[in-house]
Each structure stands twice: as structure tokens, then as C-alpha cells.
Design a protein that fits this description.
Pfam families: DUF4270. InterPro entries: DUF4270 (IPR025366). This is DUF4270 domain-containing protein. By secondary structure, the protein is mostly beta strands. It folds into two domains: about 5-60 and about 350-520; about 70-335, no CATH class. About 10% of the residues lie in helices and about 40% in strands. It contains seven helices and 30 strands. It has helices at about 10-25, 245-250, 265-270, 370-375, 420-425, 430, 450-460, and strands at about 30, 35, 40-45, 50-55, 70-80, 90-95, 115-130, 130-135, 140-145, 145-150, 155-160, 185-190, 200, 210-215, 220-225, 240-245, 275-280, 285-290, 300-310, 310-335, 345-350, 355-360, 380-390, 405-410, 420, 435-440, 445-450, 470-475, 495-500, 510-520. The strands form seven sheets. Strands 5, 6, 7, 10, 11, 12, 13, 16, 17, 18, 19 and 20 form a twelve-stranded antiparallel sheet that branches. Strand 8 and strand 9 (about 140-145) form a beta hairpin.
Length: about 525
């Protein structure tokens, strides 16, 4: 978008430009949307001096699915390389979805008074399907969306939470609730997992064998359980299995099926308030699980009803009930506090670190407009393009740098008000940019944002609002539906990168705001 900088002459200038285009068409050369050359204007570029970028550690981010559904949730431990970044222990808390009409013994399986039905729980486990991609020849899956050392296990424990997970704000029920990544969810003392500190290692395991136990403690049969992404799929999806204490699950679930606690989802949410999947340790990997995939995370209960008459087994009924990890969900991120030197700008996702940027320097006369903005306004420039570039410090570990960064505005108040940079919604996320770019040698080099509309509005005087800009790690999928000016600060991407700052010692690698413009000839 192009604007002249003096509102009083805006219409006249616009007419002048259109007239020039019509009458001197051959004088223009247009590439994309930028005016390259003509007989009435000089075109040039300038680099704005005085930019300041600083580290800005954060303590938490919004981590629930109440006002927006992330779909992706992190579980595991990541310590980074050489201590360059903060260690993160990522856990998940989730309600369970209740199926209707749950019964241990179905009506059609009720026998006469001379028979008894003995229920034996076969197994219970939490199922977590991995994100996967096909290998090159399409014959098998490969694990995806995992960072860290997959050869080292982290500790995983499963708890029942005693914290009621509410969609509505408990103190203001007319408003939606919200959970932060550093919120504490109370947990009941007894661990639900069969093995305490279960050693979680990502693997391509795509099936589990379930032994079906009769009332006389013999195995009747075995089921091989697999999950597929569609009815036509032939390759099963790999999934993690966390075995649970069978007696405890029978007590909490099967023995309560026909009680009022299972009458409705609301009653169940109050009775069994949710699961906590808690990851701890000093090594391992971070795994991203997609809760919106075809095969979803769940708590699985397998049990066998043995029908006995006169001491003889006359029938066996094999059953399986699934409780999806659904309803209110949230992530928790336990991260080390780390202070970084000012010459290194460190961005780390989850609840790690962002950067704050002052583009135009001080406002020494106190009129609410930076001196540099006033200087540029006086030149009555026509802005063709404006780009802000951040260069990667390649001497720091770049193994797991983010695919995309994001730029947004913050008034830095308490609490802060976040808003979008105009180009995100006026031009779209693709034009706005922030994608990882590589140099001619294939090395990860930089991130560039096109902020033409934002700069045009500032230098034209259409707006004086020039708050601090903030730079953060983001998931590309979060940018598909930018529909308003409000920015919601979620983060489910744990990746990290170190950038060069604004100092001259960094040469052509320092942060750079470049403006391409046209200026009327004298």
C-alpha cells in the first residue's frame, strides 16, 4: 500500500499519481507493487538507524484450548545443546470425554438367577498416537515433530487432578476462563501409572497385545490392537502406551459406571476432573502430539465378563471402553530461568524468551512521536516496500531453529495489550513473512518481515501509535486464520534460535529495517 505523508495534500497527490500513470505510461516500470523508475519521481532505499533490540524473557503463555484450539500439545523434556537455551519439562492436563450408556454388563448379556458374571480388567493404558510421515517409498511411517535426544528416556507419571477444569471464569462466570503455562494443577497422591517414573522413549510401536483373562485367572484369548488413519489404510499408526494400574482404574471407572457420577458429562467432570501427564527429568526429547488427528489420545480400558453357572464357564464377553482426552485441556511448561548476554538475542518457544524492538528510537521532544519518524515524515516519501530482517548467529546451535518467527505489537503495560502488525491482516501472513531463509550454502541465515503498510501508516501520519514490537517463535499453523487486530499470545513451539542484535560490531548481520521509497523530483 502506498501513501503520501501529508494528509492535507493526500487527494491532490493521489490525482497527480494517477494522471502521471495515464499520461506518462511509458515512464513507469512496475515489478510486483513497487515503483521502480519514472520521470517525476526518484526511487531509492534507506536503512533506518537507531534500531534497538533486546532480550525479553517471559514467564508464561496462554496454554489452554478454551478460546482457541491449538490441537498440538507438548510432552517431554528438552535440555538443548551446550546449555545454550532453557531446559523445558512439558506436561499436559486434560479432561476425559464420557461415552453415553456405559455399562459393565450389557442388558442383552444378563442371564438367569443361577448365573453370576465376574468382571476381570484385562489392561488399562493411556494411548498417545504420534505425528508421523511416510518414508520415501511410502511403505512405512516415520516419527515426526520430535526434538531432542530420542535415545534417552524422560520420566512420565500419570495423575488424577483434583483441580476442577472450568470453561467459565470462576470469579466472573460471564467470561471465559483461561489457563497459563505456569499454572499449578493439584494432583491426587496416588499415581495411576503401573510403573512409577515410567521411562518414556519415542518408538515406532504400532500395536499392543491384550490378554483376555477369565475369572479362573487363565487367558482365554489375545487381541492385537492397532489403529489406522482411515478405513482403507493398511499401515497402522505408531502410538505410545503408558500402562495404568488396573485395580485403580477398575475402582475409578468400571465400579462406578452405573452411579450418578456417570450420568452426564458435567457430573463426570466433577467426579473425575482430568488426567495430568507429567514429564520430568534431565534428558530426553519433546514430543508434539496432535489431539485433533484421526486417531486421538485416549484412556483405554479392556475387560472381560466371564459368565459362570454351576461353577462352569458358559460364556465370555470381551469389552473395551475409550475415554478421549477431550474437553478442557492445557499445557504446562516448567522452564529454567536463564539470563542471556545483551549481545545475543535469544528466542525460545513455549514459555522461554522473546525479543522487544524499538524501531525508531527516542521521542526527545515528548510529543508522542519518535524523532526519526518526524524526520522521515518531513520528506513526503511514497513508500514502496519496507522490510525488517533478523540474522541468525550461526556459531550457536542451529539444529532445532524454528521454521517461522512472528512479529507483533505490545504496549508493555501491566497487563499488556497485544495487537497485530497491520500487514498480517491487510496483506496476509504469507506476504508478512518471517519464514526461515537459507544462504547460498544452505545454512540457516535469516528471517525477514515485510511491514510496508505498517511503516506507510506511521510515516504518513495516519497513525502515531508506534509501540514496542515483540519477536517470538510461532507455529506456522497458528497464522492461517488471522481475522482481527488482536493478537493472542499462544505458543506450542519449543524451538529456539539466537540472533544478532543491533550493534555495529555485527556488520551486515545486525538487525536491519530497509525502506524502498519514491520521492518527488525537484
Amino acid at each position: 500500500m502506498r501513501r503520501f505523508f501529508e494528509k492535507s495534500t493526500f487527494i491532490v497527490a493521489l490525482v497527480f499519481v494517477f494522471t502521471a500513470v495515464i499520461s506518462c505510461e511509458k515512464d513507469f516500470t512496475d515489478i510486483k507493487s513497487s515503483i521502480i523508475s519514472n520521470t517525476k519521481f526518484d526511487t531509492d532505499t534507506l536503512t533506518v538507524k537507531g534500531i534497538v533490540i533486546e532480550n525479553s524473557p517471559i514467564t508464561s503463555v496462554t496454554s489452554d484450548n478454551i478460546s482457541a484450539e491449538p490441537g498440538l500439545y507438548l510432552l517431554g523434556v528438552h535440555t538443548g545443546t551446550n546449555g545454550d537455551y532453557e531446559k523445558i519439562e512439558a506436561s499436559i492436563v486434560s479432561q476425559l470425554a464420557l461415552s453415553s450408556g456405559l455399562k459393565v454388563i450389557d442388558d442383552e448379556n444378563i442371564y438367569g438367577s443361577d448365573t453370576i458374571v465376574v468382571t476381570t480388567i484385562d489392561t488399562a493404558f493411556v494411548k498417545l498416537p504420534y505425528q508421523v510421515t511416510f518414508n520415501d517409498d511410502g511403505t512405512a511411517y516415520e516419527l515426526d515433530s520430535i526434538i531432542g535426544d530420542q535415545t534417552k528416556a524422560f520420566n512420565l507419571n500419570v495423575y488424577e487432578t483434583s483441580t476442577y477444569l472450568s470453561i467459565l471464569n470462576p470469579t466472573e462466570p460471564s467470561k471465559l476462563n483461561g489457563y497459563q503455562s505456569n499454572d499449578v494443577f493439584d494432583k491426587k497422591v496416588t499415581k495411576l501409572n503401573f510403573t512409577s517414573d515410567f521411562k518414556f522413549l519415542p518408538s515406532l510401536t504400532d500395536s499392543i497385545v491384550v490378554k483376555r483373562w477369565l475369572s479362573d485367572e487363565t487367558v482365554a484369548t489375545q487381541d492385537t490392537v492397532k489403529y489406522f488413519n482411515s478405513t482403507s489404510a493398511t499401515i497402522p499408526v505408531p502410538f505410545a502406551v503408558i500402562p495404568l494400574k488396573e485395580d485403580k482404574i477398575k475402582e475409578l471407572f468400571l465400579d462406578k459406571y452405573e452411579s450418578s457420577d456417570f450420568d452426564s458429562q458435567a457430573a463426570f467432570n466433577d467426579y473425575f476432573r482430568g488426567l495430568i501427564l507429567e514429564a520430568t527429568g534431565d534428558e530426553g526429547a519433546l514430543v508434539s502430539f496432535n489431539f485433533n488427528a484421526t486417531v486421538k489420545p485416549s484412556l483405554e480400558v479392556y475387560y472381560t465378563n466371564t459368565v459362570v453357572a454351576g461353577g462352569v464357564i458358559i460364556d465370555t464377553i470381551y469389552k473395551n471402553d475409550s475415554f478421549l482426552l477431550s474437553g478442557v485441556r492445557a499445557s504446562t511448561y516448567k522452564m529454567d530461568d536463564k539470563v542471556y548476554p545483551s549481545d545475543k538475542i535469544v528466542l525460545q518457544g513455549a514459555a522461554g524468551s522473546e525479543a522487544k524492538i524499538n524501531l525508531f528510537g527516542a521521542d526527545t521532544d515528548g510529543n508522542g512521536v519518535a524523532d526519526k519518524i518526524e524526520e522521515l515524515r518531513a520528506r513526503n516519501l511514497l513508500i514502496n516496500d519496507a522490510s525488517l530482517t533478523f540474522y541468525i548467529n550461526q556459531s550457536i546451535d542451529t539444529t532445532a531453529v524454528p521454521y517461522q518467527l512472528f512479529l507483533y505489537k505490545s504496549d508493555e503495560n501491566v497487563p499488556p495489550v497485544y495487537s497485530q502488525v497491520k500487514d498480517v491482516y491487510s496483506e496476509g501472513a504469507t506476504i508478512f513473512g518471517g519464514l526461515l531463509q537459507r544462504d547460498s550454502n544452505g545454512k540457516k541465515e535469516k528471517y525477514t518481515f515485510r511491514i510496508t503498510d505498517y511503516i506507510s501508516d506511521l510515516l504518513s501520519g495516519e497513525t502515531n501509535y508506534s509501540p514496542t514490537l515483540r519477536l517470538k517463535v510461532i507455529n506456522a499453523t497458528d497464522l492461517l486464520t488471522v481475522t482481527d487486530t488482536i493478537f493472542k499470545n499462544y505458543n506450542w513451539n519449543p524451538k529456539a534460535v539466537t540472533l544478532f542484535n543491533h550493534e555495529a560490531i555485527n556488520g551486515n548481520k545486525k538487525v536491519e529495517l530497509k525502506i524502498s521509497y519514491s520521492e518527488k523530483k525537484d
